[in-house]
Specification:
Elements lengths: L2 H11 L1 E2 L2 E5 L17 E3 L5 E7 L2 E8 L4 E2 L1 E5 L5 E3 L3 E4 L4 E7 L25 E6 L3 E6 L4 E7 L5 E6 L6 E6 L4 E5 L5 E6 L6 E6 L5 E6 L3 E6 L4 E5 L7 E6 L5 E6 L3 E6 L5 E6 L7 H4 L7 E6 L5 E6 L3 E6 L9 E4 L6 E6 L5 E6 L4 E5 L7 H13 L15 H4 L5
Parallel strand pairs: 1-29
Antiparallel strand pairs: 2-32, 3-4, 4-5, 5-6, 5-9, 7-8, 10-11, 11-12, 12-13, 14-15, 15-16, 16-17, 18-19, 19-20, 20-21, 22-23, 23-24, 24-25, 26-27, 27-28, 28-29, 30-31, 31-32
Length: 415
């Protein structure tokens, strides 16, 4: 069966993901000028705002209604018929934006929607901040309430490819770059860059923190997936299994698993503690040979994200589809799929912090919001997540007596 027909058959055999919102630039994603891409979008940790990198130096921050699971508008339109949003903040970032991330000095597990007193001086330890990475290697820090530039960080020699704030409230910012380095910045110390991690032999493509802020994953060219101890800032593990560049990574909400997306047409789910491969999510069926995977192909997996309940993984692929994978199912086939905008390509995806929606950035700079598949986790799964989040991999501890039959479940070898 031809690849196009296989995709049509797969789309018919799975559920279709529902679109619940769009931010449209009106540009043609297939005939565009470089610089107009939406390389990264982000929800604020408290889900009060959504930052949209819409291309050509512009970032728009919009209010998100975490209860209604949608963008919050003023229920009217401008002269061109576009919806007018409440508290909209537009930023001219000065340079092409290649990444962005929200951060806060409050640990994410303690967050409630931020209510800022506008007359107070900006307080890094209490307020949300927004970081943008740029094609010239600079990083800029913004007040997302006003769009004011607060800091500029300069140390990377090539474009910044990803940014991530520590979720523990420490205000550590990590940045990835095509200069083959990962840098660690301290926002509580006026943005001081205090550590450079140098184990990548080529461009670094993505970063993600473990939920407890103890570990960092960095991925990049030459099949690299590296796991770092962020207490000692030392490399603790190399994960081997991909056949091509690795473009995206995401930890599960309890930190027990790591998902990585690659140009080899696959997403691999890893055991964080052991580095063992738990599952492989193939974006081509039948699975292609290694020679095809390791070269240029039409099924590059560009982004991956975990749902907050740990039950689903979402991925976007260069074949034009968003896939939702139900990890509770024994079938390694997508549960539902969504399509890219006509004449456009998907570049990134992010679950909202409460898990109700997934944002997908496109080459045209546009963003589409999809409704995430509903799932009520079992009490057993919630207990497993609670144990792994608070105690780590208890199966490796000698001071705990566990039934042998329970260990595979706690290690996510059984679902």
């Amino acid at each position: 069966m031809a690849p196009g027909r296989m995709l049509e058959h797969l789309l018919r055999s799975t559920g279709e993901a529902r679109v619940i919102g769009e931010l449209i630039t009106g540009r043609d994603g297939n005939n565009y000028s470089p610089g107009g891409e939406s390389w990264k979008c982000a929800f604020a940790p408290d889900e009060s705002r959504f930052a949209w990198s819409c291309g050509f130096r512009k970032v728009v921050i919009l209010p998100w209604n975490r209860y209604k699971n949608c963008l919050q508008s003023e229920h009217n339109a401008d002269q061109e018929g576009y919806e007018v949003f409440a508290e909209k903040v537009s930023i001219d970032a000065g340079f092409p934006v290649t990444s962005l991330a929200f951060g806060t000095g409050t640990p994410e597990q303690d967050l409630v929607p931020v209510k800022r007193e506008y007359w107070t001086r900006f307080d890094f330890s209490k307020d949300l901040i927004l970081a943008t990475g740029h094609s010239n290697g600079r990083i800029r820090i913004w007040d997302p309430y006003t769009g004011k530039l607060l800091l500029e960080l300069t140390d990377h020699m090539k474009p910044v490819t990803d940014l991530a704030f520590a979720p523990d409230g420490s205000l550590r910012l990590v940045s990835a770059s095509k200069d083959s380095t990962v840098k660690v910045w301290d926002m509580s110390d006026d943005g001081n860059m205090f550590k450079t991690l140098r184990e990548h032999p080529g461009p670094v493509r993505s970063l993600c923190w473990s939920p407890d802020g103890k570990f960092l994953c960095s991925t990049g060219d030459k099949q690299k997936v590296l796991l770092w101890n962020m207490g000692t800032y030392s490399l603790i593990r190399r994960l081997s299994g991909h056949y091509n560049n690795v473009l995206s990574c995401a930890f599960s909400p309890d930190g027990a698993m790591l998902a990585t997306a690659s140009c080899d047409t696959r997403v691999i789910i890893w055991d964080t503690s052991s580095g063992e491969q738990l599952r492989i999510l193939n974006h081509m069926n039948p699975t292609p040979g290694v020679i095809y995977m390791s070269g240029e192909n039409n099924s590059v997996v560009r982004g991956v994200t975990f749902s907050p309940n740990g039950c689903h993984v979402a991925s976007v692929c260069s074949d034009g589809f968003l896939r939702f994978w139900n990890l509770m199912s024994e079938e390694d086939e997508p549960e539902s799929m969504g399509s890219a905008l006509a004449g456009d390509s998907m570049l990134n995806c992010s679950f909202s912090p409460l898990g109700g929606a997934v944002s997908v950035g496109h080459t045209s700079g546009s963003v589409v919001f999809f409704l995430a598949p509903p799932m009520v986790p079992s009490l057993l799964h919630l207990s497993r997540m609670s144990v792994r989040r608070s105690l780590g991999d208890v199966t490796a501890r000698d001071d705990l007596l566990l039934p042998q039959t329970l260990k595979p479940y706690l290690q996510y070898k059984q679902w």
